[in-house]
Amino acid sequence: MRDIPPSPWPDPTALAALQARERERFLAAHPTSRALAERCAAHYLYGVPLHWMRDWPNPVTLFVRAAHGAALTCVDGHAYVDFCLGDTGAMFGHSPAPVAQAVAAQAAQGLTCMLPAEAAARVGERLAQRFGLPYWQLAMTASDANRFVLRWARAITDRPQVLVFDGCYHGAVDDTLVDRDPATGATVRRRSVLGGVHDHHAFTRVIPFNDLDALDAALADGQVAALLAEPALTNFGLVPPAPGFWEAAQALCRRHGTLLVLDETHTLSSGVGGYARTHALSPDMWIAGKAVAGGVPCAVYGFTAEVAARMRNAKDAAPEGHSGIGTTLTANALALAALEAALEHLHTPASYAAMARAADALEAGLNARLHHRQLPWTVTRLGARMELQFMPRTPRNADDVRQHAQAALEASLHLFLLNRGVLLTPFHGMMLCSPATGDDHVARLLAAFDEWLDALGR
Question: Keyword Flavoprotein, does the record have it (predicted)?
Fold first, then answer.
């Protein structure tokens, strides 16, 4: 008789019972974090300095004492292998030595002056060399960079509309915090956004990822200033581009006079220079934040010579006054020092080779376990980033992710692994490898994953 594979879905009651046991285990092992959470509740909204810090399935927030390389230590003294890495901010590892040394040296020489530091010329040269675009501006965060780029794009094209993909993530940019009505395809307000008063859905179009027909139709009326896109969806599950998609999408943008803007804040791990450089794409504008300066708050946006000329024309033609672009801390001396060190020492073939080795081992280990246990789940990978997805194939768009959502199973995976010293990104099953991620770190994750599958009876 042929063996019948077990169901990939655990009994909901049993899953809830397992999660309850893991919550108790966490509370028992983290009395100091629990005490700090109680103290912070008196002064912080939801008990944390940023409410996103509660987006984890553990019953109280995990408070960190130190983080180095691919590991962190909590205030209760437990060590964790970190595959979250600050949701990409620490992609090159926590506190990489060249950046830490540069920050310490610059801190003694001044933090911010609203004037360019001596390093500015060197940084500009390194940005052009590493990422392939000739002109650059800095911002404090990728959210700021995206805001500034959209303002520039509308100014130089004299077009009102922006186009994004359903399921995209571009930080706290209001223009992108809209949704697509699956029934009509219309852009609608995102109900979760607080305090919204402007009609951003009237000036932003949303289409499914990987849909070239929808892209062509959205651009056809000549009203779209820019397509702002991640090379792959990374915050709605990991959804890679279909073969040939970006080459065709780039051609459509050019045909319709729409700027192609690639936000690589989450896809820098695709290869040296990011996804665009690795895959020979030619965006009009390009954005990176989080990891670009080794985790120090900093973002950059680059653009072609043609776009730079149009930007100068738009700025010179505008009346004197605040352009709405830039902040006083933008391009501060501390950020420039960190960025220079990161460009010289971190954005290198050696760093990416180390990341790829760890990712190869992790991907192979996860796939071997899924095959051995006959689980119809998928590991989707993009460079050093990958995701365990509870579906039989790699998703093509955000609707695929919605249809296969397994929130309870994801929460169980996160808390179970956390209780065994492995930290994942707090949403989906996302894992990122840094140059400091070693064989022992991968082995620890895989051992905890085996234990979780055993606990599920899979």
Answer: no
